[in-house]
Amino acid sequence: MEISFYEVKQAEGILDELSDVKEKIEEKINLVKMVGNAKRVTLTNNKVMRICFLVGLFSVGKRDMEHVKNVVLSRNSQRIVASFFSTKNMSTLYSAMLKLRYKDYEIDWTDVTLLSKIIAYEMLRGRTHLLDDNNLNNFLYATSVKGVGNNIPALELLIGDYGDDIDAVLDVNSRAITNSQILVAGATGSGKTNLLAVLIEQIRSRSIETQYPVNFLLFDYKGEFSDIANNHWLKYFEVDRSAILDPVSAPLPFTPFKDFSGCTINEINLYSTEMATALCAIDNARISANMSNRLSEAIVEAYKKTEGKPIDFELILNCYVALMNSDKDDSVTSVLKNLIRVNLFEKEDKIDLIGESFIVKMDSFPKDGPIAKAIVYFVVSKLNIIYEKLEPQAMSEDYVQLRHFTIIDEAHYMLDFDNRPLRNLIAVGRNKGLSIILATQNMASFKSKYFDFYANAQYPLIMKQQTISNDVIKDLFGVVGKELQDICSEIAGLQKGELIIKDQTAFVLDLGKKYKKIKVSYLI
User: Fold this and answer.
1) pTM, whole model, 2 decimals?
2) Are residues 184 and 95 in the same domain?
3) Strands 434-440 and 182-185
4) Is a pLDDT exceeding 50 seen at residue 145?
5) Is 189 domain-assigned?
6) End of a domain among 116, 142, 168?
């Protein structure tokens, strides 16, 4: 009978143990000097683990069961995703090789703990073999690499457990669900940062080696993910420090403005009105109707000068000043000059914003200030522009393709005004392979006069709160009276790393508790 590789756990520190193999292989497959915009090839963590596992299995010799038993498994129950073994239909081979290498021992292959230790042991055997003598060269030169499979991965995100080792899994791309938006509400100290890390790690690990990798863009308000002291976090997301964009060090490497080449003036007019409204809202400036209209006209004039090509803030300012009857600054010129001064964006696209993963370092700016708002607003606007041009995502019988997650921590700063680009991204939804994770401190932030994010989210995840909104609980869980009080009491008693989630089955059947409590896996 074939071995089942479901629920296999990683060994504690296995990625660090295999890092020298990763570095040596990358050193051999990359040029000493990269030219132009060329980037170094980097191996995914899964690929390095698989290489070492295969080499270990194919190396002959007696296995040391004492060493197997001494393997320490992940203290935070980090799993190896099932696709690690099923990729390229290799699970049958792995099963056969394991049984061959351990034929002299009485092994219960249904014992997941023992199986996990054996797999880790084989990876470490492979690592030792590859680093001995000239074995790495022999392996590389004898191996031919073929294309990956074309199956859409099942993004079933294992985020923790419900208790009694029952896995808590979020299905974000099956055809059975209506959308893939995730909302996180958690006060300072609730474990919100770790939860975001777990979500990103699961999204990446379950897709990175498929034909449909899911990339992400994270707005790092607190600077934790981009902090060099937390460099080791990046390996969980299959990125390195080249993914970090710091607007203080260099302009973000793309233009946020739309290209209207060959478009009608009506399209530019509509865009200019929206952009003028946004610039006013971002700075909370007291701008009169005349100023707003003049700003909109200046944006149109700027596009006339570029013949529809993307504009920039300096050109907008020049056109605005030319339309003024005074040489004194007003609220609009102050906003534009501030944006010009900080030099947030390049004048042309130099990166593929959704074809790669990025972390935007935001902690150098006040969270509720105009610069931080401008960064998020204009980057999300750029994502809208990109998504408009994409083909609909691929579909299989069971799953739909997801291309990209936009992750906004401290999202409440972007929800208190009419943020049309953010609403548009959600509206684009699954037909383009988009998803969003929004995280705030207070659950009430997700519902405003501008938009009800709860109504458009598949998974609202509620962590410990400073204040509990009865109205939100009523809307979200459809409860009143004692059921309402029970949920409020459950939220009040949540500990760090715990959350509650709506129980869809109980909600539909109107049976039992309308929520489930999850203990989130510890990752960072």
Assistant:
1) 0.75
2) no
3) parallel
4) no
5) yes
6) 142
